[in-house]
Backbone:
């Protein structure tokens, strides 16, 4: 049986794996850009700006969850929140959009789990350069009535997904309030953190902070124990080394209390040394053990309010692993 181009399109939209709203947004972008520019080649910059404006308009009346995971924000949610809090300029936001749609562009044509039946049906692309529109997409959008129908179906699908995601995220408004407070009052640009690897590794001896297994040189990531979206800085007291897989799995999830205790003890170990980095911790957290513990716990409690109680359990057993025991030095337990 031969399917029409419009049937392939609807199958992609209706039966794609929609863990987020990106596929819907990309489909709308392509239709809108064809309507505005009517050309075969769409540059990466044109697509980035249209994608951003689509989400700005979609979320102008209030933030709504854009993915199924109740404890994470999509890149587009973060970008829009950054614009709203003036922590991002428009040009910075457009540049950041690439992080959002780079994954969905190669996966757009997937129907269910099938990546072949509709492969490159509506476009081809050159990564970070351009999208080349096929005649099949021109065909299903050239008639105004058909175009409006497709846009209406996409809008309805987007609303349906947002409704499903909202059910999974009862604390979404509270989370947004807390995150926006931090964005407004702590506008710190991201830094290159790899320069901290040698220093941090001196306190971890090639051991992953989370799973406690050995690390190899080309698989060491620097991670924020309390998610950066909450602390919104790159201070050394919140940075640890871990495997890339542990970093990916943890993402912006909340770690269990044992990891926070482990972090506090690691910081005390640095304070007990003569390394210049100790002064950064003293400045940021306080000049006594009690103050430092209190400040770390304050950030952690704010993260709990913002991220809920869905903990990542990737660091179990930390109280008995050799790395943890190594942190509990005489310096750490002195009064």
Residues:
């Amino acid at each position: 049986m031969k399917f029409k181009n419009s049937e392939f399109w609807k199958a992609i939209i209706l039966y794609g794996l929609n863990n987020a709203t990106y596929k819907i947004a990309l489909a709308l972008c392509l239709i809108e850009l064809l309507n505005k520019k009517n050309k075969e080649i769409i540059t990466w910059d044109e697509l980035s700006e249209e994608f951003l404006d689509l989400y700005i308009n979609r979320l102008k009346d209030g933030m709504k969850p854009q993915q199924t995971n109740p404890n994470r924000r999509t890149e587009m949610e973060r970008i829009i929140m950054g614009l709203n809090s003036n922590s991002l300029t428009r040009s910075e936001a457009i540049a950041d959009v690439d992080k959002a749609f780079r994954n969905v562009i190669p996966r757009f044509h997937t129907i269910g789990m099938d990546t072949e039946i509709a492969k490159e049906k509506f476009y081809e692309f050159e990564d970070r350069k351009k999208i080349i529109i096929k005649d099949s997409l021109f065909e299903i959008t050239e008639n105004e009535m058909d175009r409006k129908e497709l846009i209406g179906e996409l809008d309805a699908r987007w609303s349906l997904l947002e409704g499903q995601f909202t059910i999974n995220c009862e604390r979404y408004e509270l989370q947004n309030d807390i995150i926006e407070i931090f964005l407004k009052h702590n506008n710190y640009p991201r830094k290159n953190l790899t320069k901290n690897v040698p220093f941090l590794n001196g306190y971890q001896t090639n051991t992953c902070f989370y799973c406690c297994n050995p690390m190899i040189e080309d698989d060491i990531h620097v991670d924020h124990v309390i998610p950066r979206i909450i602390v919104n800085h790159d201070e050394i007291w919140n940075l640890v080394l871990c495997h890339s897989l542990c970093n990916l799995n943890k993402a912006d999830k909340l770690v269990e209390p044992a990891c926070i205790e482990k972090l506090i003890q690691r910081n005390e170990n640095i304070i007990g040394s003569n390394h210049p980095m100790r002064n950064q911790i003293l400045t940021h957290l306080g000049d006594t053990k009690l103050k430092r513990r209190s400040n770390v716990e304050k950030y952690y409690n704010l993260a709990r309010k913002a991220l809920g109680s869905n903990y990542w359990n990737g660091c179990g057993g930390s109280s008995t692993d050799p790395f943890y025991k190594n942190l509990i030095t005489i310096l750490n337990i002195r009064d």
